[in-house]
C-alpha cells in the first residue's frame, strides 16, 4: 500500500463523545504546537463545546479505514484566529489539522492527511483560499504546507505565538498535488 492509496472520511466532531480521544492526542508530546499539553479532559471538552457552538469555527474528525486518524478545524479568519491581523478576502477559510500520534508512523501519512484536508476544504466552491498561521518554530508543518501549495506571506504576532501567515489558493493546491 502506498500513501496515494489512502482514503479518508471526515465527520463532524462530537465534543463529548470524542473528547477522551482528543485529550490523548492534544496532550501527547508530539502535539506540543497544539498548545494543550497540560489540558485536562474537561478542558478539551470545554474547548470543543465552544467550537461546536461557534458559527465561525467547526471541528471534524478524520477517519482512515474507519478509525480516527486526525483532527481538522475550519474557521472564518475574518471572525476567528486572524481577525484584525490581516485583510481577509472573500472565500478565505482558515484551517488547523492534527494527525493522531502513533508509535508506528507510516511514511507519507501526514502529507496524505493534509492533502485530504485541503481537498475537503476546496470541495466547497466558495473556498478560494486557505489561510494558516502555524507557529514559526514548527518547521515540520511549514514543509507540509509548502508541499500542498502554501506560500508564506509574513510573520504575525498572535497572543499565544509568533505565527507564519501563509496562503494557498485552489490553483496553487491543484498544481502542488499534481506534481
Textual characterization of the structure:
With 179 residues, the chain is of the alpha+beta class. Helix content is 31%, strand content 28%. The protein has a 7-stranded mixed beta sheet, with helices on both faces. The chain is globular. The model has no long low-confidence stretch (mean pLDDT 92).
Helix percent reads 25-40%
Q: Helix count, per DSSP? A: 5
SSE topology string: EHHEEEHEHEEH
Q: Return Rg in Å.
A: 16 Å
Number of strands: 7
Q: Give the CA-based shape.
A: globular
Please state the average pLDDT score: 92
User: Which secondary-structure class do the elements indicate?
Assistant: alpha+beta
Distance between the amino and carboxyl termini: 20 Å
Strand neighbour order, sheet with most strands:
1-2-3-4-5-7-6
Strand content: 25-35%
Poorly predicted tracts of residues: none
The main β sheet shows up as: 7 strands, mixed
Which key terms come to mind for this protein?
179 residues, alpha+beta, 5 helices, 7 strands
Give a short summary of the structure.
The protein is of the alpha+beta class and 179 residues long. Helices cover 31% and strands 28% of the residues.
SSE arrangement:
Elements: E1 8-12, H1 15-26, H2 41-52, E2 57-64, E3 67-75, E4 92-99, H3 109-122, E5 129-132, H4 139-147, E6 151-158, E7 161-169, H5 170-178
Parallel strand pairs: 4-5
Antiparallel strand pairs: 1-2, 2-3, 3-4, 5-7, 6-7
Helix pairs in contact: 1-2
